[in-house]
């Protein structure tokens, strides 16, 4: 893993939040990883990008990530790989598209990256966006895999860290039962 203790980086930068969080999935969790808080530090971001790049051997032409979280991560990983850094943004119709002005040449090989993969939905949208432009996904990289083995893509999926934080439905959430205020993330 390139000597990077990812969880320690989240901790020391204050990016590992503890409390009571409403996740995008609708479930509740006592912990949340706020990657922007970690990635605001360029030196830590570069270390993470270097470690992610080292998970993959295949040469790639570009890296793509879903905006906003995937923009910095795409950049630092691409820098480590000597590749271009692209990103995908919401297309206003529930999907994603490659940002205007960023070109994918037919047959180009790419790595897709995301900070934390829970369902993998947004990185999958970014992959489809690059594939529609003629790119070929050769790998998917994440800082943290929170999917408990559920996230699958049509290419090898590797993460620097696997975490299995507990999550609850609102009805079965012990934090709700104790009246802990819920924060949206
Ligand atoms: Zn709750």
TrEMBL record:
Q: In which pathway does it act?
A: Pyrimidine metabolism; UMP biosynthesis via de novo pathway; UMP from orotate: step 1/2
Binding-site positions, orotate: 118, 146
Amino-acid positions noted as binding 5-phospho-alpha-D-ribose 1-diphosphate in the UniProt annotation, renumbered to this chain: 24, 90, 114-122
Record-listed E.C. numbers: 2.4.2.10
The protein depicted here goes by the name Orotate phosphoribosyltransferase
- Which biological process, per GO, is one annotated for this protein? 'de novo' UMP biosynthetic process
Under the heading CDD domains, the entry gives: PRTases_typeI
Give the gene name: pyrE_1
